[in-house]
């Protein structure tokens, strides 16, 4: 039995049809087959969130997501967030708040924040809710304080 | 790359059952948050998979004409948290599944998988025990109903025979109407952690008398469990502060925690006793009682 399967999905708005090894995770297909190395492999078991991407707007750990499940889905990764050379609001907030140090966790964090802000832009959000919604992402550098500020800024873009 | 030998996508429940019977070594995979990790760690027995990931037939939360609440085994935790039916009738289940992993895990892990995994620390299990949930299991041409307490046979072992698939969790109205519940998870971290002890209390009061009382634990024994001795001693008693202390004493005779690398037996017992008080108190407060 061959382990190769054909799948069709949209990656950052671009339709692609690939002939992939069904044993691969979505993360492996993104990094190895598509050269999209923004999503990182950290723990590989769904604990650190460095591989977070959006599948049909749902935040998932792509390291424990079989690539074949992406068939007919829309995938969003960090590579598609900036449009025409302009950073997304969340990306800009991370830059403005200095919420990036080594940067390894950042693509995953940005996708988690993007998913979170899509649900609650303009709403009154507590720090606890921000922490909870980012509990699946680990950062070993920043101590999270600036990330919290960046998330807040992403929710309330007009507030200075 | 996962060490997968065979991957078979099931298009329906019947198809999944047929595939399981044709491939006796195959296991089911739904959300994959347990199976893929076992596969990655090289645990044997997971290299042939029947895939029921996002199978629509298993994805429903509804109330039938008899007011039974039905939850499909393929429902992910995020959908349980956001379900108006669950929020309104059994909010303690929202509390319980809210405590699982982080957003990414809750977006993909299913309530069916959480229980079919058969572990004592399954966060949804103690609540389902307290609600007397009934599990509907389908095989080739058969359907049977099993109370959740009989479903767990031992660590990692559940009552599923070859070619069977858990399809539905059923909670009957006499097990949730008029009840107030509370779920308390004790773990080292507030997220992304396995429960040291999980405790679910569901109760019903009338004129400050406890009409019915159920207390269930995860990690207090080899499988999730109810505490019949304590429950019996509480039913028909008047709500009082001293009753809480009494509960925390009796509970010792019901549970059998063990030492693991996560916590010692003594520590677990201490937490079990404390949580019995806290969870009961919170459930009583929700029921409008004063303690």
Walk me through this protein's architecture.
- The complex is a heterodimer of chains A (160) and B (291).
- Chain A is α+β, with helices and mostly antiparallel strands and 160 residues long.
- Chain A is 31% helix and 17% strand.
- In chain A, helix 2 crosses helix 5.
- With 291 residues, chain B is α+β, with helices and mostly antiparallel strands.
- Chain B is built from twelve helices and 14 strands.
- In chain B, strands 4-5-10-6-7 form a five-stranded antiparallel β-sheet. A four-stranded antiparallel β-sheet of chain B has the order 11-12-13-14.
- In chain B, helix 5 runs antiparallel to helix 8.
- The mean pLDDT of chain B is 97.
- The interface between A and B is medium-sized, with 32 and 26 residues.
Mean pLDDT of chain A, nearest integer? 95
SSE order of chain B in H/E notation?
EHEHEEEHHHHHHEEHEEEEEEEHHH
What is the CATH architecture descriptor of the largest domain in chain A? Roll
Overall tally of structural domains of chain A: 2
Amount of helix of chain B: 25-40%
The description of the largest β-sheet of chain B is:
5 strands, antiparallel
* C-alpha end-to-end distance of chain A: 59 Å
Instruction: Please give the most extensive interface between any two protein chains, plus how many residues each contributes.
Output: A-B, 32 and 26 residues
Task: Write the CATH fold name of the largest domain in chain B.
Answer: Uridine Diphospho-n-acetylenolpyruvylglucosamine Reductase, domain 3
Unreliable sequence segments of chain B: none
Amount of helix of chain A: 25-40%
Instruction: Write down the overall geometry of chain B.
Output: globular
